[in-house]
Every structure is written in C-alpha cells, then in structure tokens.
C-alpha cells in the first residue's frame, strides 16, 4: 500500500482585514468585505460562484429563463462583458435596445436574487472584433489601451453611457452590482488601469469590489483592483501542432500557484512578465475565468468534456479558491453587425479565425440554452459550496507529504485537504484531459491534525478509479451530529420528515462508509449494510447507494439527522430550491428552474418525470392535471402525461455534392485561415432541410441536431447566414426558434459543408484516418425540449 499522508500545520494567524480600499455602500444589510484570504458578506465568510453570460449574444426574450437556469445550477453572480462594439458600432449612436438592453438584464438579475458583475472594458477580448473596440475608434489618431487623451475622451463617453444604464442599480440603492471589472488582460500598464477606474467612478459607476484579470504576471496599480485568476482545460489560442499545453495541464494538479501565463498568450510576449506574483497573503484566491468549456478557432478546435470541467472546478476548490468564476457558463451567438461581422479574425489582425456567429463555447448551458452534462457536474459542486462554502472559504489548503514530481507525473495520486486545523474536506482528482490517469489500488489517507487525533480513511484501503474526482468530509458537524469522515461527497442538506437530511454522493467504484462520533450518537438505523461500534466511533458500512439509502440517526442532543447516500448518477440530478412553499430537493436529469410559486421543467423526454423531497401535500399540477405519483425511495416521483413527441427523423436532401477542398491558406502568425466565402458558395456540399409545419407553428425548444464531417458548415435561410460551426467531432445544433419562420416555409434551410484539405494545418482531436475530412451530413434529427410549468396541487 502506498502511504498517503498529510500533516495539518497549526492554524495561521488571522488574515489582515481592512487593509484594502474596498468598501460597500453605507447601511447595506449584508456588507461585502475582503480579508487577506477570503471574502465576507454580512459578517460571514462568503464563497461566491460567478458565471459568464453575454446578454448581447443571446435573445432578450430568453434572458429571464436562462438566468433562472444559471441560478438553479448554483451560480450566485452573473458576469457579463459590456461589449462596446455591440453597443456603438456606428460612432455617436449608442444602442441599449433589444438584445443590448444592459439595464433590463441587470434588473432581471436583481429580480431573481442574482448578483451582477459588469466587465466594462473598454477592451474586453471575448473573441470579439477588435477585442470590443469599435472600428471608428481604431480609425482615429490615438493609441488605444493607454492614457492617450485622444483615446480617453471616447472612453469617458462610453463609461458615462454604461453608468447611465446602471444608475440606481448599485448596492446603495439595493441593486445587484457587487463588482466591476476594468479592462482585460492588460498586464503591463498599472497606471492606465488606475485611470480607467477613476474614469468609471467619475461617470457614476459604483461597486464594493473593483477587479482586474491577473494572469500573465500582471502589474496592478497598488491595491486599487482585486486580482482575479483563471484556468482552462484546453486552449484554442495555441498552435495547431502544439499538443496539450502545459499551462492547461497544470490546472489538474493541487498547487498553490495562482497565475496562468498561458491565457491570452497569443496577444502578448510570453518571454516577459509584468511583475512578481501578487502577494498571496494580501488578496484572496478568486477566479473569474475557470473554463466552463472552450471556443474553437479555425486552426485549433479543442473538445472539452464534462469530466474535464468537473475536475478543473473541484481541483481549484482544493487548491484554495474562495471564488469560483466560470467563463463561459452560458454560450451565445454573435449578433450580426451592421457594418461588418463581429468575430475575432485574421482580417482584424488577430492570430485566430473564429466562427462568424457561434460562440457556444461548449458551455454548461449552450448557445440555445441546451443543458449539458457539465452543467450537472458543476451543480453538484455548487450545492456543496451553497451549503458549506462559509466553512470552506476560511479553510487553508494543505498539500500532502508526497507530491507529483512534475506536470508529467501521472502515477502519483493528486490530493489535498482544506482545513481549519480540526476539521476539513479531502479532495482527490484522478482525471485530466487527453491522457488518462491510472487506477490507484490499496489507497487510504491519513490526515494528522495539530490538536485532534489523526483520521485514517477508509477503514479498508480502496481503489481510486481512473477518472474519479471527489471531496470527502472530515469531522463535519450536521445538526448536532459529527460525521467523523465519509467516503462519499457532501452535496447539500434539506429539512424533511422532522429531520435534517445530509445528502451525499457516492463515487463509482468506491463502497461508501460513514463514520460517526459516538459521543454525538444515541441510535443509528440503516436500510442496508452494518452498524459497528469501533472505539469512540460508529462505522456504517455496506450501504447500497440509492434514493432509499437513508441512514437515520438520533443525535445525543435529541435532534434527528438523516444521511442519504445517493449513487453517483442520481446525485448529478439533484436540484435544491424553494418549491411550493418550502425548500425541497428535486431529482431530474433535465433542466429545472425555481420561480416563485412555480417550478419549470425543460425536458426532451417523451414522458418527463421528477422526484421531490420532501413531497408536497398533494401531487403537483401540470397543465391543469395532477402529475402521476409513485414512490422512489424516500423521494416521491411524479410523471407528466405528455402528448407524443413529433417524429424526430429529418429528411436531408443533397442538392450539390462537394467539390475538391480548397488549398489551405495562412494568416496572422502563420496560422491556418478560414477559406474564402467564394469556396463556401461554389465548392461546399449543399443540402436542403424542409421543416415540418407542426414545428414551424411551435419552434420554441426545437433543435436541428446534425452529425457531420468536413471542415466548416454554415446554415442559411435564403441568403442570410443563420448558424455556423467548425468541425471538431461534436454535434451541430441549430435552434429553430432563432430562424425566420416565414422564409423557412418557402425556402427551407440550406446547409453548406466544406471539405478539409489533407495538408491543412488544422488540429481536430480524436479523428482517425481521412474520411472525416470529406464534407457530409451523416445524420439529422429534431430534438424537441418541451417546457412544463409545475404548480402546487
């Protein structure tokens, strides 16, 4: 057996407080403050979860439901770039109408209890044309991103326009704006960052936190801006033949290094650092760009899986993060420009060609609101932070005695502990992209505390499977009961049946054990397995995870506690929210939102169902009919009697076969460029899709899902480009509701698919042979996600 030992040092001195110039509005009921190691809100440690969602890349009519999806996914703060070129493409005509309505978006956040973090630029990047700076600005005689007065003059006007939109939405007026980001990825001009903050404040913008991205050895202007970090599982901005970047690989190890010199390295000299690392004891470890997915560039098309995103997020918590911020949490679509297309491209001098329209980012919520497996993986972690984040935030990260020898060490188990000196959480990551990590047989952990007995777990060594990522509790107090340790991950708590129920998630391949402090236990009953006194502890072993695996404990103080051990798959269907007058758990593998007296279910299933704990007094009502009710362990499951789904088959007619692939061309930095439009018009294979009338009458929630091969694909209604994608091996979804219905009726949908030349310097992962380079649509189907409003019975 390989020993896995960790010695917890004596607790550090309390962090400095009041040393940073961040102040909340006077008199707010939950003032936000910053210590040297964590944030507080209302005097308690605060562990925010922020997710990026670009309002100007999504239809305004759908904002509210998508924000509710984010909230149900555990996001507590919504971040969004305020992209200048989206609002003022034409000089002097600043638009905040329709999909650009910044104020309405912020008000929707406030309505649903979500904080809002505008990232106001003026330069954003965001894979937008000119990084978000309008063409007319670049045409002027000025030096952008500096204190050149000719640049600051239009910036001042832009900030004033943004401030007017957010007037009255600051914390002083009960608004949702908790932080404002200045600029982006500007690593070597602290004076300009200070100037921009001053201009924003003079314009009337206000927030308790002012932030800056801090990767690339950033030089910050003293304590003026809170540094925020990032980390991605993959990158589109590196070379096509560069392999998996080490700057991405590093994020699947437990370390205390915050910086990532790889982010944005295509736009700055990698041989230069702006400054020494920001002092770790002065600012808490906060993030704004943990990769919820990854965009694809023409020359490099990464594919990010849900397990990659889950491992990245959990590892960062174990490393010491006290703010989980994701980019992107919700994908989007570039708006059509009035003068030009609005994507980053070689044509605008950038080293990457991006698709014209899609900015899906493989995000947990897709550009059409698709609920992806990564959404469920992250929600599992966010439930943990929602319930226990105030305990985790002050805990320090401690690394074990035996560490990996380097970034290419795949054999040493990767683990860490967050601890306050007497209790904590043990984190294990045995997954990374591209290169699987091995099983670790005969594994047990010993955590030695300075003022408490050491813990060794499990009772018998186990095999940590390849791909496993988990968090186990150490001396977790739950309503009068002390859970000494468990080989299952805490998810959340809920009050049900007169008891506090702690939900835990089993890890596939590891039999769950629960060990209780005998001094806090009066009695234990379990539906399966054994209850064994072991010294001053009680071992509960052999529990079969599932919806009926409720271990019932009467605590020594008379309180009642339930320990519900769900299997790994079921745990990833847990939602927690206010439903029908009480806080409840809802099990559903699809999308669920909580909205006042209503719960809404978004499901592509023929007969959607969901399970609830505690069950409402009577069966919920859907469309005037009570849902069909049945027991599901300690949950009550409800099934909706739904009308049959339309036929999913899609006839795709080949109109024109593809010609020979165009000769590859290169652009900025010698990287492959998107073929010219003339080849899409003359060489691409062309298909026609006729949309059934029943779907045209009700296009909401309808996706055309295509499996295809080739280089790039574009969809048109008439001559209007409506969707596009570069081939990366993923399915291509086209949302029917976004398309002009009347034109579809008469002209149908045209798909053009271009083949890829054999010698193109393009990285497409996981492809074998040459057949995938040929242009073709292999399969098409309609995916219909219906929405159900569920009210109290």
From TrEMBL:
The keyword Hydrolase applies. It comes from the Bacteria. Residues 40-187 form the Glycoside hydrolase 35 catalytic domain. Pfam families: Glyco_hydro_35 (PF01301). SUPFAM superfamilies: (Trans)glycosidases. InterPro entries: GH, Gly_Hdrlase_35_cat, Glycoside_Hdrlase_35. Keywords: Glycosidase, Hydrolase. The keyword Flavoprotein does not apply. This is Beta-galactosidase. The lineage of its organism: Bacteria, Bacillati, Actinomycetota, Actinomycetes, Kitasatosporales.
